[in-house]
Every structure is written in C-alpha cells, then in structure tokens.
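Practice record 12: protein with adenosine-5'-diphosphate.
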Amino acid sequence: MHQNVNTAEKASSTSTIPQKFVYFFAAGEAEGNAGMKNILGGKGANLAEMTSLGIPVPPGFTISTEICAHFYEAGGKLPEWVRPAVTTAMAKVEAKIGKKFGDVNNPLLVSVRSGARASMPGMMDTILNLGLNDQTVEGLAKSSNNPRFAWDSYRRFIQMYSDVVMGMNSSLLEVTLEDMKEDKHYKADTELTVDDLKLLVKKFKELVHQMTGQSFPTDPWEQLWGAVSAVFHSWNTPRAITYRELHSIPASWGTAVNVQSMVFGNMGDDSATGVAFTRNPSTGEKAFYGEFLINAQGEDVVAGIRTPQPITKIAAQGSGMKSLEEALPQAYSQLVDIYKKLEAHYRDMQDIEFTIERGVLWMLQTRNGKRTAAAALKIACDMIDEKLINQDEALLRLDPGALDQLLHPTLDPKAQKTLLAKGLPASPGGVNGQIVFTSEEAVEWKEQGKKVILVRVETSPEDIAGMVAAQGIFTTRGGMTSHAAVVARGMGKCCVAGCGEVEVDYRTETMKVKGYVLKKGDVITLDGSTGEVYLGEVKTIEPKLDGNFERIMKIADQVRKLKVRTNADTPKDAQTARNFGAEGIGLCRTEHMFFGADRIDAVREMIIADNKSDREKALVKLLPMQRDDFYQLFKIMDGLPVTIRLLDPPLHEFVPHTDEETKELAKRLGTDYERLRAKVKSLHEFNPMLGHRGCRLAITFPEIYQMQVRAIAEAACMLIGEGKKLVPEIMIPLVATDKELDILRVSAINEVKKVQQEKGVKFDYLVGTMIELPRAAITADAIAEYADFFSFGTNDLTQTTLGLSRDDSGRFLGSYVSSGILPKDPFMSIDQTGVGSLVKMGTELGRRTKPDLKVGVCGEHGGDPESIEFFHKVGLDYVSCSPFRVPIARLAAARAALLGKKLH
Ligand code: ADP
Ligand code: MG
Ligand code: MG
C-alpha cells in the first residue's frame, strides 16, 4: 500500500508525456537542428543540421532524450505510447527511400544509434543492418545483386544484436568467425565467401539459442523495439556510468535514439567506410586527417580489425598504402568539399564519420572533434588568425583543465634508451611504468602505489578504469582513431597505439618484440608524441610551453578580473609558479618549513618544553631558519604579495610516534625517555582536525606566532635594506571568533613594531585571517574589524560545513556522488549551495565592515575551473592554487569573466 503511494508520487513528480518526441530528417525536411542537442542528443541534432545544409545524410529519425526518463520510469520498458509515432516516422523513411521495412523483396534496413548531449565515444552501442532475417536477406541479395554483401550484413547484424540487445558475450561469435578464417587460411574478413557467411549465420543463430535460451528474433519490428530499448538501457550500464562520472555528465540527461536508413560500405571495392578530422587532433596542424577501409562497415576502422588506410595522398606517402584520394577520387573530392563546409559552418574542428556506397558518399556523423591540449591551443590561435572566431570565442572553447596535459613531462632527449618498437603517436607525453595486461590489474597495482602501463591488443570501454589507473596505454592494434587513442587523448593520458611489431600474449602475460620477452611487472617507457616504446625506465623532463600557450595566456590575462596566486611553501614551488604566471603567493604553509631535517629537532624541543623560557630557547634556534625561508620567498616573488600563514597543525604531528624514534630523540635532546614519552602521549587528541591547532595554539602559546612574525618582519627589513619593496601579509588560521583575532592581531602588530624599532626600518604589512570555520563566515562582519584581508580556506571550510573529514570520507563519498546526493566530490569542486553560500556570505559581511577588504581563496578549489567560475561570481579578488594549476586558473578566470558578461 505504502509502496504504491510512493510510486504514484514519483511518477507524477517527473516528466509528462511530451507533445513531440520523434524528429524526422531527410533531404529537404529536417525537423531538428544543431541547437537542439538537449532533446536530440549531439548525433541527432547534427544529423538534422547536416541534412539542412544539403549534405547527403541517409534519412531517418531521432527519438528524443526525454523518452529515456520515461523508459526508466516504466521500469526499463518502452512505453506503449511511444510506438505509433515511431511507426509513422518509419513510414516516412520508407516513402523517401522507396523500400519497405521488413519487405521480403527489397527491404529497408536501418541502424539504431545512441546519442547523448555530450559525445560519449564508445560508450553506447550501435546496431547496424537491422531488419534482416532469413527472408529479407534473400531479398537484399537479389535487390543488390550481391549475395556476399547481403550475408555479410546479416552475420554482422546477428553479432551486434545478440551482443547489445540479447546480452550475449560477443567473443563467442567472434571466436567462431576467427576459427572459420583459420580453417580456410583466410587473413581478412573480406575473403569469406557467400557459403562461408551462410554457414556462419546458421552457427551464430544456434549459438545464440544455446547461450541465451532465446531464438534470434525474426520479426523486424520486434528487432527494432528490442534495439531501441537496448540503447536506452545502455545509458545505465556500468561503463556508461563510469564515463559519465569521469566527465561530470548528469545521469538525468539521458540518451536519444537515432534510427537511420542504412548505407553500405561493404558492397565491394567501390565501397568504404571511414572517419576523419578536419584538422590534426594531435598537433592541431591544419591538414585533413583520417582513416578508412575499403569494403567495410561501421566501426571496422576503429575496432582495429584491419589496419586502416590514410585518407590523403600526402599522409599515405611512404606507407605502401593506397589513400582514399587515389582509390576513390570522386568520393574523396566530395568529402573534401563537405569537410570544408562543415568546418566553416560549425567554426570548429570537426570529427566526421562517412560511408561510401558504390562510389556515392554519405555522411553519418559530425561533431566538434576531441583534441589534445596542444592541438586545442594551436587550432584556437589559427582560427583567430583565419578570422573564423574572435579572441573571446577562442577562450570559451578551451577547456582549462586540459592544459594540465601540456604541463606533463616528456622523455629526456639526452637519456640513454633502447628502442623496442614504434607504434602510432596516439596521445602525447612521456611515461614509464610496469606492464600489466588487464584493466583489473592496472587498478590493483595502482592501489599498491605502483606505476603501471596498460598493455592491450586493443582496448574497449570495459578497460576505462584500467586506463584511468595507468600512467600510459599501449596497444598493438588499431589506428589513431581507435578506442584506446580517442579515450587516452580525452583523458590527457600518454598512449602508443597500433604497434603491430609487438606480439602480446594474454595467456602467458608477455609482450614479445625483437627477441625481447617482457613479463608482467617489467618496466617500459612510452613516448606518446612519437609512438616509440623503450625498454626499461627512460628519464623524463619537465615540459616547455610554446608560443600558442603564451598567446592564449596573454589574451586570458586581459579578460580576467580574478587575480591568480599560488600556494607555495618552498622557493622551488614559488619559482615554478612565477614561471606559470602566478601573481603572488596566496598561501605559504609554514609547517612545511618545520619538517626540514635541520630543524625538526628544534621544533620538537619547542613542543616538549615544560615552560615558557624553555620554549623560547628552542624558538630562538628556529628564528634564523624561518627568517631565511621567508627572505627567499619574498625575494623570488619580488614585490608581489606573499601571504604567510602562521603555524596551523596540532603539535603532535611533529613528534615521533614509535617508541624507537622516541628513544632516539630523547638521546639526541639529552632528555629522559620516560618524560618524553609521557609528553608525547599527553599531546594525543581524539579528533585533531577539531583540536588544539591553528590560532588556538597561539592563544595558549603566544611565543610560537611571535617568533614567526618576528622572522617575517626581520626578513622584510633585510629586503627593504636591499632596496626592495614588499608588503607581507600575515595570516592567522582557524579563527572562529573575532576575539581570537583581536588578541592575535595585537600581538602580531606589537612584534612587528618591536622589530621595526630595533632595525630602524619601516614597511607596510597586512594582518588577516583564514575563514575556514562556519562561525567565522557567519560572523565575518565582526571578524573583519580586525582583519586587513580574508582568505577562504575552503578545504577545512568544506570539512567543517559538511561535518565530514576528508581523510575518512573515502568510504562513502563515492556513493554519495554516484547516487546523486551530492553533485560532485565537494573537495574537488566547491559545494556551491552549502560551502559556497558561506563564502558568499562571509565576503558580503566582511565588506559591509570594510568595503575594500581584500578577499581570496586558498583551498584546493582555487585551481578547479568550475569553482573558479563561482568565486568570480561571488566577487573575490583572487584565487590561489598549486603552481601547476596556475595556467588553468588564469584561463578559467578569463572564461568566468566572459561567461559573466554573456549573462548580463
Ligand atoms: P558511435 O557513437 O560509437 O560513434 P555511431 O552511431 O556513430 O556510433 O555508429 C558507428 C558507426 O556505424 C558509424 O560511424 C558508421 O560507420 C556506422 N553507421 C551508423 N549508422 C549507419 C547507417 N545508417 N549506415 C551506414 N553505417 C552506419
Ligand atoms: Mg560505438
Ligand atoms: Mg560515431
């Protein structure tokens, strides 16, 4: 009873039946367009758009993404009311083509294709040649006058349908086919004769019955409903879910289904299928670039069944292969016209799929092509120069997160290396690691802290988790557009693909090449920029950035409002960040300075001191070291703002934890072991995150902060003495009440004054605070009375607002995100509604007290593009992030400014 009420509520609270949900497209009439990606999916919207542009597209129709939700609401079944609209659209396709679906003489065959808003390569399964059965195959053989083609299409259909719709393990049929090829000594699928194919079809159907207990469906309509349902179903397969999580695609979007009349690339030597990019997706070079196969169908090119041929003559040079330009010149020149038209129309690099049926070209897909970060920058700069796009558009197109790729290491050209083999340079970068042969092992080994290279004959969507875990990916089959290549580029991960010289044996878990036999666990090095594979570990070097990068960064700097600082504790980090364009240090964590081998004992002496004077004695030892640290940082930052956070972590973090270490320390400090042990024990806390740390340390032991402030002030005096300018920013952490800050501010100011008097030097400085506790954000107006600046410590603010410890959240946070309770991991991207509201409120309250209060953020979120967009909206002055994320933040801040302008 109760259950029923719930279901009823659920159904009525979601979508109502849409007025229109089937969109037809055929020459002269497309009901959709490129702007309708939300309901037609990317593929469907672009098929409609291409049709309207007068580009040859096989007629068909798209069932909208809205139906996906209805499908799940109906318990994973296609609602009855969907069917009439589909049969009507099918009749329109029949009328256009002059063939009938299910007709035994001249059957119309269709493909059933998925298509979400965002392209999800390889995530959803396509079914081709649907509508074939023992009768229609004869009709197709007769009407095409090509029985081989008809039976080849039929066996392909059974393979795809039994796999995707009937849930059968596709490798069973694959093995049957391979066995037959071996028996007959065939190399390629194309050698299979009509009789072979007929026999295969028979065997396939028997196997399907054996394995699934069901007969292969013969009724074309039953086939169609099955396929449409399977596409909707595939939206929630584990591999689709993994991909969505990786790319932050909401589960609610759903997929559309495209039903499209077939064109055939497997009709003989005047037929072909291929994929291409309008510019090189690896380098961005302006050159038409792609691969095709003669007498093939569908995904043969990307599946790596045969080695695909290059499309252009130039690319084929020296390969011994025939290009499309030479093999089918007419279709080629038509393809060139179309790709140019598409690129000019979409004003972006396109990734296109086409099929040539008996010399006639058909377009099956276009979308904005995925590309490496280097290619993205080059294409953006080139398109600005070509006046195809303006500077703002160029920025809006670039994915800030992808810049990360450019900052990856490459192989040291001077390093000694032993070349094993050369494959395709599928995705750049230089990596080394231990080889593993399964995705599962890649994940396991990674968890054990090992660096691994995933070695596969080819990859499939099941390998995604392993690809994520691996440093790099290596395959022996497949081209530049193979699954491995496309997915690796998307992830910014190094990949060498299609390295046919290497023989990979899954059974023995070995890879063999040039007399070498490498076993699981052996180390290799990949160069994804050249396709080379080396024996053992080759040294890598830090990347250099090219002119396109500099140019885009300059454009971004002109546009952005947010300043970008860095979190840096060492001179090296500070220098790296400056090279990447950091405009100051937003967070220097002084505790990192305490851990140095030369000073940790002095720190410990200070901690275990029983009284103030002992503590001060130890602090005196630390003072010159801290002063030197600050001096170095100030010097490198050369007048740019530097925020120094005074000691934050609880003291027990610095003391030894084992009896052994405690004994040794007692000896070194010349103190009693028992006394030391008792002291260490007394520092124990039940919940250190919320314990005696941050400004609470200074309330009880003011000497610690006084020493640090003195070190800052003395370093400042030294630099002023050298004629330098600087305005140090002293930051007090973990403040909950204005009283705390009041007390510590007075203490800091007194210390600075003392130093200034002693040295006879004056300089400006700021004293501010971290806002990292909800109470501080809520009472920010009072706190601002004593603060010259605020810096939101969003890591701790996230922990304290959500009441969860980052270190302990691993067990449940994942399921919170996958079940949609939280939209994202709140430690990666700021929880805008919760934590974000506190940031907004704290900023507004603080500025109510001090209108020109400087406000920044220094949590992990300062380097996350989505969070940066939020911080821009809230009106912060700056974000601070780790050195390698500085370029990402510069671009993200510029995009935030542009997006903000668009809205107003
Ligand atoms: P994906 O989303 O994985 O790219 P697609 O739906 O694009 O899958 O289908 C994969 C391939 O199947 C296409 O590139 C094309 O070669 C082939 N294909 C799809 N529909 C048709 C069709 N109507 N006629 C001929 N080939 C088709
Ligand atoms: Mg596919
Ligand atoms: Mg496709």
